[in-house]
Amino acid sequence: MESDRAIVAGLIFILLIIGANFAMYALARGAARGGGSRWISALRDSLHKPLDSASNKSMDELRKRIEDLERGRRKEE
Fold it and tell me: What is the 3-state secondary structure (H, E, C) of the chain?
């Protein structure tokens, strides 16, 4: 009885591994072909785009003020 459960669990584990490998193969093949896969480009854009939080906005404002100050200093020199 326990050996039957172990065999079934082993088969399920093997099927999960094969399924995961097939999914990764399909993802890699789709990315390599570069066809009309909109969901991959959407995922890539969402990972590369910084979050628009209040702290990022304040840091952007600080960067702009520093750049303005540096430009003013360069004009004075």
Answer: CHHHHHHHHHHHHHHHHHHHHHHHHHHHHHHHHCCCCHHHHHHHHHHHCCCCCHHHHHHHHHHHHHHHHHHHHHHHC
Per the structure, the complete domain to which residue 55 belongs is given by 38-77
pTM above 0.85, yes or no: no
Assess whether 22 and 47 both reside in one domain.
no
Residues 54 and 52: their CA atoms lie apart, in Å, by 7
The confidence band for 11, taking pLDDT boundaries of 50, 70 and 90, is very high
Q: Specify whether 50 is located in the same domain as 63.
A: yes
